[in-house]
Design a protein that fits this description.
Elements (H helix, E strand, L loop, with lengths): L7 E10 L8 E12 L5 E9 L5 E7 L6 H11 L7 E7 L2 H6 L37 H13 L3 E6 L3 E4 L6 H11 L3 E2 L11 H8 L3 E7 L5 H15 L3
Parallel strand pairs: 4-5, 4-6, 6-9, 7-8
Antiparallel strand pairs: 1-2, 2-3, 3-5, 7-9
This protein binds zinc ion (ZN).
């Protein structure tokens, strides 16, 4: 689908990008969509980019924990990338703009958004940076993401984190996708189980409730420019219909 009905389009434009492999110009469409509002009133924005003939969509979440900033660089690259034919890409630089603004893991109410999704939610971690919140999907950022993903129904979603290092195989929906991303990025396949079992994570919610596959990539404590390049290129490759 091109445009989720309840979302507010804040900007739209069409770019003509010349392709070296095609005689005619490939039209790249782009729009910026406000998918929700944070606790402190900041917009949660998604940039939608797609080329003519686009197929199933892919979503990239650059940052969910505001003190993990390497994924912002991946999204910045993808915002400028030439799209292969058939790619339909939704780029969310941060789903936690208050946390990103404050360089803080949690949202403005001190909730770890990656413990707040309504899948295997438990109340845990009060007074720590991993507080799951007072109830499942209590936070507006969580609800914005679930509504957005239900509307867009991406086939592939990549969620970027730090400081661990690898492509997450824990409760993976598609090991083929995990292995492909590992191969493309040079990051190892690793099992990130949140120290004994994950509760209320975005990827678990996505993989349980939607048809598409979501994968977490941990970019390490710091990410080199070449790693950022490899990860953004890997996203384009797995988002390209075969
Ligand atoms: Zn994280």
């Amino acid at each position: 689908m091109r445009r989720p009905v309840p979302l507010l389009i804040v900007a739209a434009l069409v770019l003509a990008a010349t392709s070296t492999t095609h005689a005619t110009a490939l039209e790249i469409h782009q729009e910026e969509v406000r998918i929700g509002t944070s606790v402190s009133g900041r917009p949660i924005l998604a940039v939608h980019r797609w080329a003519d003939g686009a197929g199933r969509s892919a979503v990239v979440v650059g940052s969910m924990h505001g003190d993990e900033r390497a994924g912002l660089r991946v999204v910045r690259r993808l915002r400028a990338a030439v799209l292969p034919v058939g790619v339909d890409l939704w780029l969310i630089a941060t789903m936690n703009p208050d946390g990103t603004s404050a360089d803080r893991r949690t949202n403005a109410r001190g909730v770890d958004l990656n413990r707040n999704f309504p899948q295997n939610w438990v109340e845990a971690g009060a007074a720590t940076a991993k507080w799951s919140g007072p109830s499942a999907a209590s936070e507006p950022e969580t609800r914005a993401m679930t509504a957005f993903l239900r509307d867009v129904r991406p086939w592939t979603t990549v969620v970027l984190h730090q400081p661990l290092y690898g492509v997450d195989s824990y409760r993976a929906k598609s090991m083929a996708l995990v292995r492909r991303l590992s191969w493309e990025t040079g990051l190892p396949v690793r099992r990130f189980d949140c120290g004994g079992g994950c509760h209320g994570t975005l990827t678990d919610w996505h993989n349980s409730r939607l048809d598409g596959r979501a994968v977490t990539i941990e970019l390490g404590r710091s990410a080199s420019d070449s790693r950022v390049h490899l990860v953004s290129r890997a996203v384009l490759r797995v988002a390209t219909p075969s």
